[in-house]
Amino acid sequence: MKTQFECIPCILRQTIETARLATSDVRLQKEAINRILIYLTDIDYNTPPPALGREVYSIIHRITGNNDPYKELKHKYNALGLAHYDELLRIVFKSDDPVMMAAKLAVVGNIIDFGAQSHDQVNIKESVQNIAKIDFEINDFNRFIDDLKKARSVLYIADNAGEIVFDRLFIEILQRYYPEVGLEFKVAVRGAPIINDATREDAEMVGLDKIATIIENGDNAPATLLDRVSPEMKEAFTNADIIIAKGMGNYETLDDRTELIYYLLKVKCALVSKVIGAPVGSLVFKRNESFMGK
Known about the structure:
By secondary structure, the chain is an alpha/beta fold. It has 2 domains: 7-64; 71-287, Uncharacterised protein PF01937, DUF89, domain 3 (Rossmann fold, 3-Layer(aba) Sandwich), CATH 3.40.50. The protein has 13 helices and 7 strands. Strands 1-7-6-5-2-3-4 form a 7-stranded mixed sheet, with helices on both faces. Helix 9 (163-177) links the parallel strand 2 and strand 3.
């Protein structure tokens, strides 16, 4: 997905928030913001927004010396997600369709995104309490189950810290309800800190390493830029029978691929809403329409 004019205000909001988190030195905050304003005057609009985000955060890191300004918030939301875990399990097992409910919760977990919104806008408890009233706006869940039953290897491309607790739940439920398939899960996380995106540290904090193989993608873009990721990530992407891509960033960078990808996300901006065909605020479980297989 290409960058549009509408992306610029969002990038500037992220810039200001991150600069303030990165340092209390107003002089450095101003320097970072001014440098990014200059950078934005000559960007390539043919690139996806996360590619710009990678450079924006690199500028902030270089100027402030802080390469992980969201570290405390990531730990906070990992802990908060874990604190809700037993409640999430109860919701799943009380449901008439536990696997579908776990899928919905995994997508609801995508609200924990500080790139698309400020961290003070996230309300996990409210979203979980309303889960019974929520349906997927784009719902390819049944096709996913059909594809899953023919698969062996799943590459699960994670998005954010905190959200990965919901991902862990979904993976555990899939393993529980389809043991005969013998699914092998690899969970891809970022290779270095960027916004509140999940890294290996986050994955291990929430216990994902106990149920899946964790791989670092070798890059610190807030999405998956396949021309920049590690050989290990490229191999996992190429060899996976199914790819689950979480979040808007991964949709923005992988929407033109032809592999069997399921995009799981909450729509948080008007631009993605227009491209994907679902209203802002809705939940999406979408099969890649460009998949070259059956």
